[in-house]
């Protein structure tokens, strides 16, 4: 039995930030992490040639002020995503090259319908109060509507609907029929709207930390030194009037407060004694994650840049639904990220890795030409089966959940405080949201201590 002022459960961005801020405020902290590594839904592999691959969360963008501030504090610079060329959209076997967020080179009625849908979504976002989306004027009706129903009713042009469905449902790595419209609008609004969430330049994929996300989480862990315990899944939290006992398989830690930063989709795997208040307990059963598979093809050089391409492409119903240039700040070697989400990710997840790799490379070669057929390296990261993530990228709310259980998202339950990107009302689902949630949870613990 060890003692600390606070135990933080989980060493992702939310947990490490909470721990860092508490340490800076003079509190003793122990971070307990289930995995044998740091970072949670971010996971950086540094390669022998000095380049790096972010298998999970990767990009940052303007407005994500807390991750930028944290990087500045830790002395980590950022670099811009490569956008000096054209992106590609492949629909019904036809390739459209374009610049910007909306592919204006498609048939005019498709582009116009996409433009109208963006306009509508922007207006809807403006009506959502971020701290309490369940109080939005149309919260009740939007929370009874799925994203699929809304797309059917408001985006009449089939190709526009298919593209928007892939982009939006893909963000939540689920089918559009699983997602509450209120949740989708809330998540978009939390990040400033659809232009940011679906955008690259000046959007959610504007930049990356030099060294990848690992440079940031490793620097935080360095400052916490011996206070991070890996391979220590928390099994139960026993709370009484004087503190909380955190039980792992081999250790117990007694603390005045606990910050739980695990994804909400798996927060219910921890046993809470006494049982959590009903609303919180039921919330844990109602915010699942989707499926996402992120692979990387490595080439001697980013050959697509010489072909006037950014490396960004989208092709619904192929084995490489989304691609993005994922080169390190030095530019070489050529690293192409391939992201498959939702139903496609589930299908690919069930394949033998060798067959999956062949299917993805075949899709890349059809899109980018013969040079794409011969990568010198290939990586797979199947978040769908990661036990301590419960899927990826983020937990979402199906219909009815935000209006019924949303108010239980953030308030502490006695000495248990909740962090994690899903508790952030700004930049929900992003690394920046995770950092914000960690900082908010740390402030909460300090305030509770002072009371
Ligand atoms: C493929 C993919 C791509 C993404 N792309 C981006 C992107 O480009 N930009 C962006 O901003 N965001 C992106 N995200 C989302 C981003 O990674 C997450 O929002 C963020 O990392 C969440 O941080 P967190 O600390 O809230 O949760 P997590 O990172 O999930 O941290 C929770 C930690 O708790 C640990 N844990 C779980 N259960 C227990 C237990 N019982 N006991 C102890 N520890 C436990 C986990 O192992 C984990 O380390 C992406 C995510 C994925 C999966």
Provide the fold topology.
Layout: E1 2-9, H1 13-24, E2 29-32, E3 44-46, E4 52-54, H2 65-74, E5 78-80, E6 86-91, E7 94-98, H3 108-126, H4 139-143, H5 147-154, H6 158-171, H7 181-190, H8 194-197, E8 207-209, H9 213-224, E9 228-229, E10 236-239, E11 244-247, E12 252-260, E13 271-273, H10 278-283, E14 289-290, E15 292-299, H11 303-306, E16 309-314, E17 322-325, E18 334-341, H12 342-349, H13 353-368, E19 377-382, E20 392-395, H14 401-405, E21 416-418, H15 431-450
Helix pairs in contact: 1-9, 1-15, 2-15, 3-6, 3-7, 5-6
Flavin-adenine dinucleotide binds at residues 9-15, 32-35, 40-42, 56-59, 233-234, 261-263, 266, 270, 292, 294, 383, 388-389, 392-394, 420-421, 429-432, 434.
Cofactor: FAD
Family: Belongs to the flavin monoamine oxidase family.
Keywords: Oxidoreductase
